[in-house]
Amino acid sequence: MKNSFVKYFGRICFLMVLIITMAYLMPLVYKLMTEGKTNVPFILYSPDKKGFFVIDGGKFLDENRHPIAKKKFESALPLFFYSKLLKEGTMPDSVDGMAVSPVLLNTNNFNESIYPIDVDIVEKPYYLLLNCSGVNLTNAPDFYFSATSSFNVFNIKLNQTDTLLSRKMNMAAIRKGFVFPVKAVYGNKSVKMINMDGNFFVDACNNFFQIKLISDSFSVSTFPFPDSFFRISCFFNFDMRNHELLGLALTPDNQIFVLEHGTNNFIKIPIADYRPNQDVLRFSNNVNHRTFTVIGDTVITQYVYNKSFSEIARYHYPIKRYEQTVAGKIQKYVFPFEISFSSPNRLKVSPAIAFNFASYFGLNLLLSLLYYVLRRSSSGVVKAAVFVYCTGLFGFIALLVIK
Amino acid sequence: MLKGVFYKEYIKTRRTLLWMLLVLIGATFALFLFVNHEIEVKQVSFFWFQQMVSNNLFFVWMLPVFPLMAAIFGVVQFLPETIGRRFRLSLFMPENELVISFSMLGFGLLALTLLFTLQFVVFAVLFSGIITLIWLLAAAKVFVCFWLFSFATYLLIVLIFIAQKTTYRMVLAVTALVQSSILFIKPQLNIFDCLIPYAAILVMLLFFSTSFFIHHYKTGSYEL
After folding, report:
1. Is B47 inside any structural domain?
2. Which end of chain B is more exposed for a tag (fewer CB within 10 A), N or C?
3. Distance from CA of A282 to the nearest CA of B (A)
4. Is B53 close to A128, i.e. CB distance below 8 A?
C-alpha cells in the first residue's frame, strides 16, 4: 500500500515535470513560429502645426493616419530633425514664435524611457559613487558604496573600506536628519561617468534625500513632500543638461510626479492610465514643450505639456499587439496556461505563470471528453479526465505518454 | 544496509569524483589567473566597473561546468547499473526498494553537493583578495542556482537510465535540454534569485519521480 502510494505520487511528480516543461516550451515555440517583427509606433508632436505625426513600421503618417512624404514629415518636426534640416539648410530660425539655435536645441533635447524592468528595483551590493564636481572622468570610478544600516564607501583600487569618506558621508546624512537603515537607493538609469546629480535615497522614515560627492565632501539635500501621505515607490534621476528637472517619481498608487530643480518641488502629472509594471513610459523634453507617452497594450497615448506642465494636447494611437492577431487569439484558446522566464518585452527575467481562461470553456472540455472516450475501459478514467480538463493540452499529451 | 549501498556507490564513483574535483579546482584556478590577467591589463577600477554596471560576470563562463559534471556523474553512477541489469539486483537487496534507490540518488546528490561546496571554498579563498564579502554572497546565489539546475540535470540523466521505454527516454532528454536552456536566457547577477525557488521545486519533483520508474524496473513491466 505504502509502495503503491509512493509510485502514484512519483507518477504525479513526473506528470508535473512534463507539464511544466510543456507549458514553457510549447507556447514559446508557437510564438516564435507565428510572431512577426513588430515595431512600436513613434509619435511626435509638432508645435508649429499643432498636431501629431507618427512613424509606424517605416511609414510616415499624420495624425489622421494618412501617409505623408518623408521631407514634409521632417520639415514639420524641426525640433526633432534639426540636425538633418541644418545640413540641408532648411532649418527655420524660430519655432512656434520662439527663436531656436542648434546649441539651444541640443541642450534642451532630452529623452528617457522607463520600462517595467526599471520599476522593479533590484537591491545591489554596491552602488557607484561618482564625483559631481564636474571633473571629466576618463578612468573608471574607484569608489563604490553599500547602503544598509550605514553608508560604507569602498575603494576598489585599494580593496578596502575608505573609513574617512564613509564617516563623512554618514555624518553629512545624519546632520540633515537622515534616519538609517536605508530603504531604497535610486540613481541615473543610464550610467554616465559624469553625473551631476549624485544619488537619491529613501530613509527609514520615508523621507527623500539627495547626496552628492563634490571633490571630497558630501552635499545633502532634502525634498519636501506635497502632503504627509506622499510616498515614493520609484525614482528616476534624469541628469538633464539644462538642469530643469531632477527626475521622475512614481508613487505606490501609480501616480507620476516630476521633481523640479531649484524649487525642489514635486509636481503632479495628471496621467491616470499608466501601469508601471506593464506599460512603457517615455518622457521627452524640448525647447518649448514636454511630452509623456504611455505605451499600453492596445493604445499609445501621448500627453503634451508646456513648460509649466499645463496640458496642450493629447493623442491616442491604437496599436495591434500579438494578443490581438489571429495567432495570438488562437494561442489563448489552445494553451490553458503559460510559464515564462522572460517578460513579453524580453527585459525582465523571472518565472511567471499566465492563465488563459478561454481554453477552459473550449479545448480543455473537448480534450477531457476525448480522453474519457479513448481510455473509458481503464480504471480511474474520471479522475484523469478531470486532470486533463484542468491542465488542458499539456495534461492530455502527458497522460498519453505516461500510461 | 544503507551503509552498504553508500559503500557500493563510493567504490563505483570514487575515481570519477577525484577527477571531477581536480577539473573543478583546475577551472577555478584558471579563472583566477584569467581575472588577475584582466586586472593587470585593464586596471582594477575598470574590471569592477564592468562587473558592477554591465553585469558582465567574470565567472559566468565556468558555470556550465556544473551541469556538465552532474550529467557525467549520473552516467558514471547509473550506466554500470543498467548493464546486465545490476540495478534490478540492487533493488532485490533485503531492504525496501524505495529506500535503496533513494539512498543511491541521495549519495549522488550528497557527493555533488560536497564537490561543489569544495569548489566554492577554493573560489572564496582564491578571490578573497579581489572580491568583498557582500559580493561573494551575491555570487553564492548564482552558484546555488546553477547547483540546483545541476541536480535536476543529474536526476534527469538517472531517470533516462532507469526508464525502460524509448518514449520516456526521449521525453526525459528533451526535458533535460529545455530545463538547462533556462539558465542561459540572460546570465546576469540579479536574475538567479528568482530562479532558485523554481529550480528547488524541479529537483524535488524529479527526485520523487524516480519512484514511478523504479516500480516498473523491479516488476519488469517494460522490457529494455
Report:
1. yes
2. C
3. 23
4. yes
| CB nearest B186 (choices: A14, A349, A401) | A349
Q: Could you tell me the three cell numbers for A235?
A: 525614482
For residue B22, pLDDT beyond 80: yes
Domain extent at residue B152: 2-219
ipTM of the complex: 0.87
At residue B49, what are phi and psi to the nearest 5 degrees? -60, -40
Q: Do A141 and B49 touch (CB under 8 A)?
A: yes
Three-state SS annotation for chain B: CHHHHHHHHHHHHHHHHHHHHHHHHHHHHHHHHHHHHHHHHHCHHHHHHHHHHCCCCCCHHHCCHHHHHHHHHHHHHHHHHHHHHHHHHHHCCCCCHHHHHHHHHHHHHHHHHHHHHHHHHHHHHHHCCCCCHHHHHHHHHHHHHHHHHHHHHHHHHHHHHHCCCHHHHHHHHHHHHHHHHHCCCCCCHHHHHHHHHHHHHHHHHHHHHHHHHHHHHHHCCCCC
Chain A residues closer than 8 Å to B178 by CB: 21, 24-25
Q: How far is CA A228 from CA A205, A206, A210, in A?
A: 11, 10, 19
- Residue the block writes with cell 481554453: A359
The CA distance from A315 to A45, in Å, is: 9
Mean local confidence (pLDDT), A383-401: 91
Structural domains in chain B (count): 1
Question: A301-351 pLDDT, tens per residue?
Answer: 999 999 888 999 999 999 887 878 888 889 889 999 998 887 555 555 677
Residue B167: closest CA among chain A residues belongs to which residue? A401
The single-letter code of the amino acid at A185 is V
Chain A nearest C-alpha distance from B153 (Å): 13
Instruction: Give chain A's length.
Output: 403
* B224 belongs to a structural domain: no
A197-217 pLDDT, tens per residue? 888 999 999 899 999 888 889
Please indicate, yes or no, if residue B191 is contained in any of the structural domains.
Answer: yes
